[in-house]
Write a structure and sequence with these properties.
Blueprint (H helix, E strand, L loop, with lengths): L1 E6 L4 E8 L3 E9 L1 H4 L7 H22 L9 E7 L3 H18 L3 E5 H7 L13 E6 L4 E6 L5 E6 L5 H11 L6 H9 L24 H12 L8 H26 L4 E5 L6 H13 L4 E2 L11 H10 L20
Parallel strand pairs: 1-4, 4-5, 6-9, 9-10
Antiparallel strand pairs: 1-2, 2-3, 6-7, 7-8
The structure holds adenosine monophosphate and magnesium ion (MG).
The site of adenosine monophosphate (AMP) has 19 residues, from α5 and α6.
């Protein structure tokens, strides 16, 4: 199938054309960072308004770059949730209108399924079930057991902050520009990850839950202390990043101890972090399991992953587009 994907759940206005859930013919994304940077975070009202003005052009661009047209595609896949309601509504309303006007099938995709299938974009690999996913983004940090494309179970979550949120908040304390995660990674490259002994959350043996708020608070107190004057910001960034990576990898190891999987899959915006993806790959190698990590351009929010998820999961055709609503809290399983 040739699907048009649309993604507007947060602050990326994205459209893509994907064949067979895998071959990315175009992947257009208009980043809004410059509009949110001065507020130090995403402003929902601004995000919705930018989507409203940019989405039609993004869709046109995606069709042109894929050398196709609305008439030639087999269906439209759109992120229906979770996300910011004002942002989601722009994508969903646009997709519904296109489906209605063209008579093509309409697929409502859970954004988190999109992140998981991002690891198989532009790759010849077929997802080897069951696999374990570490899903790390600005809003979510979870371990997901994928028994099949349709049967996915969240087996662990963060008790508080998402990993991306912890990166962003600490980056801000370090005076780094928004978005903080990528900036913190760049700064960390020049630092010593052992310079500061930040705490690692370790639940009782066998437990899989995650937590980053203690680490975040500890970074805040450390930065305000006299000890902080003795180490560079690069050292602090590297030490903070190492603590996040250690906690995430420890929980992956625990999940792999608990049962057998055929592969491990990294997904979500934080998958773009090279310290994390290298550690993840090492875990795969040590366990003799293939480790799938999305290409960098498919780690952060994009529409190709939304089209891929609709096809790989065989999401239901909601050809009567009136039945589809945007849902910021769409359950994920
Ligand atoms: P998403 O929620 O999937 O759009 O991912 C966005 C989140 O990923 C934000 O919290 C970013 O700060 C974080 N992120 C993106 N790139 C990196 C990176 N290289 N290192 C750490 N965090 C990152
Ligand atoms: Mg996302």
């Amino acid at each position: 199938m040739l699907l048009l994907g649309i993604e507007t759940s947060c602050d990326d206005t994205a459209a893509a054309v994907v064949r067979d859930g895998r071959d990315v013919l175009s992947n257009v994304s208009t980043n809004q960072d410059e509009f949110h940077a001065k507020y130090g975070g995403i402003v929902p009202e601004i995000a919705s308004r930018r989507h409203a003005s940019l989405l039609s052009a993004a869709i046109d661009d995606a069709l042109v770059r894929a050398r196709t047209s609305l008439g030639a595609i087999d269906g439209i896949a759109v992120t229906a949730g979770p996300g910011l309601i004002g942002s989601l509504v722009v994508g969903v309303a646009t997709a519904k209108a296109l489906a209605f006007a063209t008579g093509k099938p309409l697929y409502a995709v859970n954004h988190l399924h999109g992140h998981i299938f991002a690891a198989f974009l532009d790759s010849d690999a077929t997802p080897p079930y069951p696999f374990l996913t570490l899903l790390v983004s600005g809003g979510h940090t979870q371990l997901v057991a994928a028994e099949s494309a349709r049967e996915m179970r969240v087996i662990a979550k963060t008790r508080d902050d998402a990993a991306g949120e912890a990166f962003d908040k600490t980056a801000r304390l370090l005076g780094l520009p928004f978005p903080g995660g990528p900036a913190l990674e760049v700064l960390a490259r020049a630092g010593n990850p052992k310079a500061v002994a930040f705490p690692r959350y370790r639940p009782e043996a066998g437990a899989l839950d995650l937590s980053f708020s203690g680490l975040k608070t500890s970074a805040r107190y450390f930065l305000a202390s006299d000890a902080a004057k003795l180490v560079s910001h690069a050292d602090i960034a590297a030490s903070f990043q190492a603590a996040i990576v250690d906690v995430l990898i420890d929980r992956v190891e625990r999940a792999l101890d608990a049962r057998e999987y055929r592969a491990i899959v990294l997904s979500g915006g934080v998958a773009a972090n090279a310290a994390l993806s290298s550690a993840f790959r090492r875990t795969g190698a040590k366990r003799n399991l293939p480790a799938f990590v999305p290409e960098r351009r498919f780690c952060t929010d994009n529409a190709a992953m939304i089209a891929a998820a609709a096809e790989r999961r065989g999401d239901a055709d909601l050809r009567d587009p009136l039945t589809l609503t945007a849902d910021p809290s769409l359950p994920f399983a």
